[in-house]
Amino acid sequence: MFEGRVKKINDREDKKDGKFVLYCMEVSQREDFNHSLEFAIEKANSLSKPVIVAFFITDKYRYSNQRYYRFMLEGILKTKEKVEKRGIKFIIRKQSFIEGCLDIGKNSACIVLDRNYLKTQRNWRIEVAKKSDVAVYEVESDVLVPIETIATQQIPYAYIYRKKIYEILENFLKPLDKIEPKINSLDLDIEGLQLDNLEEILNMLNIDKTVSTVEKYFVGGSDEAEKRLKIFIERKLPKYREFRSDPTKDYTSNLSPYLHFGQISPLKIALEVLRFYDREDENVKSFFDELIIWRELARNFCWYNPFYNQYEGIPDWAKKTLQEHKRDYREYEYNLEDFEQAKTHDPYWNAAQKELLKTGKIHNYMRMYWCKKIIEWTSEPKNAFDIACYLNDKYGLDGRDPNGYLGISWCFGNFDRPMQERKIFGKIRYMSDKGLERKFSIADYVKKYL
Ligand SMILES: Cc1cc2nc3c(=O)[nH]c(=O)nc-3n(C[C@H](O)[C@H](O)[C@H](O)COP(=O)(O)OP(=O)(O)OC[C@H]3O[C@@H](n4cnc5c(N)ncnc54)[C@H](O)[C@@H]3O)c2cc1C
Question: Which of 178, 184, 228, 364 falls 20 to 30 Å from 388 in CA-CA distance?
């Protein structure tokens, strides 16, 4: 049931006189198909203890803004209700992750954490493991196949990851049974926020309110994610392969914000798709290539490459060729402000940036174009990398995610092969406005967002 997903990350033991098992929810913000939650319940049952769930919010996080806090809290409040229906206390606290885990955890028998692949959050876990007196377990529920089961180093190309995953995927395509907690924890007296109202919680936080909220386009929560999944399977998946790259059509799932906050499990998505379609169906293959191969490759990348969100993380050949062409003549050059305000000469690029500003997401094809043009119009490639990360992380509901760092790194040549040499880009793959015009009714896309 938890094959390859659970790792004990310190050398302490489960404490016999601990009052409960504590699960600190962070990556998998859901009640359903959550291996960490089920593991915590199983552990609590085996120790004859109750289990509790805690969720910590802080306004100290670098990217804290109301756009994604609203989306996240919409989801968390619904998850709280669902967890409590199972007789499990759910505490929300305004506290840092480390302080919260240690503070509640000091009375626990053991602590269960979700695995997170990013540097800051990994360091939080190291601190909790180091400072806690009880055993700390890390559970990986964000992927179909645990990344260390596939490889113990960075995998440079998707085709290698694809081959490795497909050899063993079958073993992991299994639903996750729910375990009933033996002891109800709802009456345990542990301090948490007394607020169940989204607006009150948002008002309590000192977060960036200059970034607009996007509830017109995305409302957070597992139920919303499931509605989108249903629509995707019924209406879009049958044409996914043909139309997924066309930014003027709506044929992708739009599940990335929900996946980013763990409001839906990728395993559940895959199993739902397979309830209706064969694995050999060309649309399923194409969709699984994104949902499983590229998404899990991104997690492998962030886990094994410490420079995943920096220019330094791209391959040497890509750095060399970009450096060689650094002084090439650029017809247009822009700074962060121009990019952020969508003030370039290019209506296609501006429309992509406006899609990001307005909705919190960009269509995948336009996201590639968007990042490639930032490289073209910035004199220093390292600055281009930082600008792309900054904008994607600040405005993307699905930003701050391994997928984003892989996507940006890909635009700089990572996971790709050298092409014929040209101005500015050197041997890095290039994209042009003419290409957009040739392939799509791109004027329709511009109309939608300008
Ligand atoms: C420069 C750039 C920046 C990107 N930033 C992000 C980001 O911040 N967050 C993010 O989730 N994705 C990012 N991507 C990847 C991709 O654009 C989005 O995942 C996709 O557009 C999400 O839309 P969807 O859910 O409708 O995708 P669908 O086509 O329905 O795919 C289903 C799921 O598969 C995963 N997926 C799809 N494409 C990719 C991909 N190329 N790489 C990795 N996983 C993928 C996503 O989780 C997605 O939700 C970026 C790509 C590029 C080129």
Answer: 228
Token representation of residue 238: 């049958």
Q: Which residue has the tokens 């957070």?
A: 220
Instruction: Note the pLDDT tens digit of each residue in 143-170.
Output: 999 999 999 999 999 999 999 999 999 9
pLDDT at 194: 85
6-8 and 135-139 beta bridge pairing:
antiparallel
Domain range summary for the chain, segments of one domain joined by +: 1-142, 144-175+221-304, 311-449
| Domain 144-175+221-304: assigned CATH number | 1.25.40.80
Q: Rounded distance, CA 20 to CA 38, Å?
A: 15
Q: What is the pLDDT of residue 61?
A: 81
CATH number of the 1-142 domain: 3.40.50.620
Q: Which one of 299, 403, 415 would you pick to mutate in the ligand 1 pocket, going by the greatest count of ligand atoms within 8 A of its CB?
A: 403
DSSP string, 297-366: HHHHHHHH-TTTTSGGGS-HHHHHHHHHTTTS--S----HHHHHTT-SS-HHHHHHHHHHHHHS---HHH
- Say if residues 70 and 205 touch (Cβ distance below 8 Å): no
260 lines ligand 1 (CB under 6 A): yes
Task: Classify each residue of 76-96 as buried b or exposed e, where b means 16 or more C-beta atoms within 10 Å of its C-beta.
Answer: bbbbbeebeebbbbbbbbebb
Q: What is the pLDDT of residue 392?
A: 98
Cβ count within 10 A of residue 1 = 13
Task: Pick 311-449's CATH classification: 1.20.1250.20, 1.10.579.10, 3.20.10.10, 1.20.1260.10.
Answer: 1.10.579.10
2 CA to middle of ligand 1, Å? Answer: 27
Residue minimizing CA distance to atom 30 of ligand 1: 253
Q: Which residues of the chain have pLDDT under 70?
A: none
CB of 401 within 6 A of ligand 1: the answer is yes
- d(CA 300, CA 124) in angstroms, rounded, equals 19
pLDDT at 62: 81
Per residue in 224-269, pLDDT tens?
999 999 999 999 999 999 999 999 999 999 999 999 999 999 999 9
CA distances from 209 to 63, 64, 202 (A): 11, 9, 10
CA distance 289 to 86: 35
Contacts of 434 (CB under 8 A, 6+ apart): none
